[in-house]
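Minutes, project check-in

Agenda point 3 was the complex the collaborators sent over. CS summarized: two entities, 565 residues total, and the question is how they sit relative to each other. Sequences were read into the notes so everyone works from the same version.
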Amino acid sequence: MSTLIEVSHLDYVYPDGTPAVFDVNLTIDKSEFIAFIGQNGSGKTTLSKCLNGLLKPTSGSVIVEGIDTRSRGVIKQLVTKVGYVFQNPDHQLFNDSVEKEIAYGPRNIGLPEAEVMARVREAAAVAGVGPDHFATHPFFLTKGLRQRVAIASILALKPHTIVVDEPTTGQDMPQSIEVMNFLQRLWKEEGHTIIIITHEMSIVARYAQRVVVLGQGRVLLDRATREAFAQPDVLKQTFVEPPQITRLGQVLNPHLPRDVLTVEEMQARFEAARKK
Amino acid sequence: MAMAVVIKDLEWKYEHTTQFALRGVNLEIPENTFLGLVGANEQGKTTLINCIKGLIPHSFNGVYRGSVEVFGQVVKDTTSLHLAREVGLVFADPEAQFTAMTVEEELVFGLENVGYDIRKIRARLEWAAEVTLIGDLLDKSPYDISGGQKQRVAIACVLAMDPRIVIMDEPTSMIDPLGKQFIFDILRKLKEAGDRTIIVVEHNIEQLAPLADQLALMRAGQILKVAPPDEFFADPDFLVEQGVYSPEVTLFTGWLRRQGRFPASAPLPRDLAGGVAAARAALDMGGRA
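CS then shared the predicted structure for the full assembly.
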């Protein structure tokens, strides 16, 4: 597996003196699906903003596909490597049509107009934003569609890695499932590395392959999702509980497995447990 | 039992829209009970609570038919000041309701506005701060505290008015797991006190279910189902079709029931302990009557 992002001994202190991230070491490879979890103030968002150079390390380093984010004049390169989708799409959308919104990034890095338009069409198609919406003002779209436009505007820059901050906050279950299935498709079919920041453990259990647990600016746990949720004691330090169905297995272990992630998986493994 | 809220054939269409947001809602909420209001987004949940609070029709224009009564008084014909004392509403976004420079001023604002004397104001302030655990935030700016703390302050402001009905619209949707736990602890305290009617709109069914006396499901501007939890969760597949996901334990025991390993007559459990008992019995480990 090839490494996309290498974070070494990263410290980040905000200009007003507030320390946010301490000695974080992290290697992110191609085609990973990672969840950053932890309480508010644990450093999740700060860390993710360090990954695309929005924030520069106070000390330590972040190397993105060979580029040190502290180097001068690399921001236009970095935006084509790591895309960041804000929690609230309205914080990110500012053009008066969907087409201009998606075209903004590619135009900004100076691509020729024909290439810009080709990328708009491609990114919109992948994100499920139909051409009939191109002339619409983004604010007249539903929240789900605005989020897709926000993601399309990132996809148009063709970054390998896409960071999505709280993709399901404020959404109901059908909407959450829709956006997560979309991110899963970007990961599986388009080969993107996806990083989500979320508080929803059932979403983490169902979609993420790896979990990075942050607490007070440090990485407390960095494991495959299944192994992470099998360690409820470490999660408890940061007031996170595994999904209810995982806890059910843990209470009844060894009769049931302690690392079940979803209800469907519990059904399958329950059958196996009964046959024993 | 005395009714806190009685809604009859309620229809409402916002001005400049073509479709009715509420299309014949009927609902009775007994005094001092806890109602969980659930359903997918855009089905009319927030519109309905705005009708109980009286924001509709007093602060919105539109077409209003049917009636809403709060403790026997017709909301449409009741003054906002009177409704302010009877019904408190906490918004999903706490900042939407902040105006003052400190948390304490924020809490006192509503009380001064209705003209209470200083001793009563102090007693209310202390009680509301204690229930919501914000005593140490009183001299801070409401904009300078965490999202979870903001939501607790917003709740304290509403509780300080001592309304007989407290409504919360997705009170945990914007905050982290620890902050959510604080909010559900406050709801539990209010329920245990038993002297208030509580209405909560919430997507977190797992945490809501153990608190609710009744759950109401909204779909396309109507109440599709209203029942105590045992009956409400009897058919998890139906709920999924309506965009509502039951607790994982409920979905799992629903599956056990289809396999004939959970009694068809028993209510499906919602909490971990109930799920453990059901799974034990299905594994023939004993432990269930």
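Noted in discussion: The mean pLDDT of chain B is 92.
Follow-up: revisit at the next meeting once the mutant set is ready.
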